[in-house]
Amino acid sequence: MSASLPFFRYHPDPLASRSIRAASETCVCCNRDTGWIYTATFYTAQDVSGRFCPWCIANGSAAERFAGEFTDSYGLDGVSEDVLHEVTRRTPGFHAWQDPHWLVHCQDAAAFVGEVDHTELAAHPEALEQLRVDLRTGGWHDESQLEHFLANLGEGATTMLFRCTVCGAHLAYADAS
Questions:
Q1: Of 28, 55, 106, 143, which residue is 20 to 30 A from 153 by alpha carbon distance?
Q2: 55 near 34, Cβ under 8 Å?
Q3: Which own/partner contact pairs does 32-41 have at CB distance under 8 Å and 24+ positions apart?
Q4: Distance CA 9, CA 110 (A)
Q5: How many Å apart are CA 14 and CA 114, to the nearest integer?
Q6: What is the pLDDT of residue 162?
Q7: Distance between CA 22 and CA 2 in Å, rounded?
Q8: Which residues contact 131 (CB under 8 A, 6 or more apart)?
Q9: What digits encode the pLDDT tens for the residues 31-87?
Q10: CB of 27 closer than 8 Å to CB of 61
Q11: What is the residue-wise DSSP string for 25-82?
Q12: What global pTM score does this model have?
């Protein structure tokens, strides 16, 4: 088992997000047991039975060999083609109830921090306020219902927290079953 996983700029702690876990499984791309295996989404038209090691994700070989992506490009408007490919083809995705998507800030993809509840989100007031604005724009007009929803994040709904790689601001979106 390797002590040092590859670094993913846009998903710096895939162990905490449970996208990568310790396992004695063989990577379907390189056919090696590295001691680590990817457990989240992979979108491809090919029949891929099995999982990938973090190195095949980081170097792009899994996405290239199986003509797939670890995350949808939804939400990545305005980033360069290089950033788009790094996020979708060389960065571990994450678990979500709905289709996961990446957030953008300062014309760069943000780094995925993890799934958080209201208490954890409240530690990042700029992300909480941005989420309020997004939910209002999306149709939440009753303030008491909106605040009730936010206060109960973690009970049937959660928040995906990101951090801007340029300015450090935190961003979030709600995910519900």
A1: 106
A2: yes
A3: 34/1, 34/2, 35/1, 35/2, 36/1, 36/2, 36/5, 38/14, 38/70, 38/92, 39/95, 40/70, 40/92, 40/93, 40/94, 40/95, 40/100, 41/70, 41/71, 41/93, 41/94, 41/95, 41/100
A4: 9
A5: 9
A6: 97
A7: 10
A8: 121, 150, 159, 172, 173, 174
A9: 999 999 999 999 999 888 779 999 999 999 999 999 999 998 988 999 999 999 999
A10: no
A11: --BTTT----SEEE-S--B-SS---SB--HHHHHTSHHHHHTT-BSS--TT-TTS-HH
A12: 0.90
CA torsion angle 112 115 117 122 (round to 10) = -10
What's the longest Cα–Cα distance across the chain?
Answer: 53
Q: How far is CA 142 from the centre of its chain?
A: 29
Say if CB 96 and CB 116 are below 8 A apart. Answer: no
